[in-house]
Amino acid sequence: MSAAHPPLRILMIGFGNVGRKVMEILSVARHRFPGLTRLHPVWVGVFTRSRGALARSAGLDPQDVLQSLPAESGVPDSHPYRTTLTVAEAVQQLDYDILVELSVLSIEQRGEPVVTWVREALGRGRHVVTANKGPAAFAHAELSATANRAGVRFLFESAVMDGAPVFNMARHALMGSRILEISGILNSTTNYVLRRLEEGSSLAEAVAEAQAAGFAEADPSLDLEGWDAAAKIAVLANVLLEGRVTPPEVARTGITGITPADIRRARDRGCRLKLVCRARRTETGVTARVAPEEIPLDDPFARVEGSGSILRLETDLMGPLLITQENPTLYDTAYGVLNDLLSLAAPV
Ligand SMILES: NC(=O)c1ccc[n+]([C@@H]2O[C@H](COP(=O)([O-])OP(=O)(O)OC[C@H]3O[C@@H](n4cnc5c(N)ncnc54)[C@H](OP(=O)(O)O)[C@@H]3O)[C@@H](O)[C@H]2O)c1
């Protein structure tokens, strides 16, 4: 390890699909990705909700973590680095450079307890990288201000469209232009379900198929009722339009009320139904909505399939600009986290 690339001491909260993939890429699969040579993680803690936690100030062995915390079971009681610290205590007490937060969003709890962990870490002068929509959806302005005061970064590239460079592009490649309006298709479960409804499935059948294909959660209501899309457009509105919109403030209609007759009517008019997110600046602030819309077949939004996404940005100086993402995998999500980590690592 060169002095130009010092180690990054990482506290990781959440060790599910994304957490495991990030650690796997940075350890056992590292030799496959020469672009990651600047990253030298030292894992000082790995925490889950129900499967225990590991902590070691000198650094955990990632191969041991991957084995000791398999997806389906918890840390063995006998593990030498098993800890009884709570996540809140770890965030406040452990010595780390970056909180990598990969737990889950709770709409009912308005993004808590994660918003508090992120606030505490930033307040302690620690960077935060998260793939969770909650912090930026519920508290972007406050958390960014806290980060600025502490001279650290609050990064969340994977929170919308996985590793597709939405926030990095706006931050680095759209300098001088002002984003005025955002629209997108950002939820894969609803996209898949609407396609299956077009093909004649019932809503229940389509949801069961989406679950079998791995898109939909066991409880798909967050997707079907538009909450996931509302959280994503809230993040986009807050970050790209400087809004103060929380998910419950997004005007929201999900797809549970869509009937076969709605699908036929759209088709007869040369359209497809899609769950579209929209946000725009107004004279008094920013408005955001999520609702099914009839999209003409020749519109790029009508061509988004499966787990793909699309985002359209209207700016004052150029555009419109479209970002599309096809068939993302966990590597795409992990890449957004790695990209954020690289931007915190020492320059080449
Ligand atoms: N999967 C994707 O493709 C994807 C794409 C973009 C963004 N994201 C976001 O990335 C985050 C992680 O996704 P994932 O697929 O890895 O989720 P996941 O497989 O459900 O894993 C979540 C992890 O967070 C832990 N956790 C949840 N609540 C916690 C709490 N209160 N305290 C401590 N740990 C807690 C869970 O603990 P247990 O192990 O005990 O359950 C689990 O280890 C989510 O916010 C998700 O929205 C995911």
The CATH homologous superfamily of the largest domain corresponds to: NAD(P)-binding Rossmann-like Domain
Hetero groups in this structure are: NADP nicotinamide-adenine-dinucleotide phosphate
> Helix and strand string, N-terminal first?
EHEEHHEHEHEHEHHHHEHEEEEH
How many strands? 12
Known CATH architecture of the largest domain: 3-Layer(aba) Sandwich
The DSSP helix count reads: 12
Topology at a glance:
Layout: E1 8-13, H1 17-26, E2 41-47, E3 53-60, H2 62-68, H3 87-93, E4 98-101, H4 114-123, E5 127-130, H5 134-150, E6 154-155, H6 166-172, E7 179-185, H7 188-198, H8 203-212, H9 221-224, H10 227-240, E8 251-252, H11 260-268, E9 271-282, E10 285-296, E11 309-315, E12 321-325, H12 330-344
Parallel strand pairs: 1-2, 1-4, 4-5, 5-6, 8-10
Antiparallel strand pairs: 2-3, 7-9, 7-11, 9-10, 11-12
Helix pairs in contact: 1-12, 3-4, 4-5, 5-10, 7-8
The structure holds NADP nicotinamide-adenine-dinucleotide phosphate.
NADP nicotinamide-adenine-dinucleotide phosphate binds at residues 13-19, 47-51, 87, 102-105, 113, 131-132, 158, 162, 330, 333.
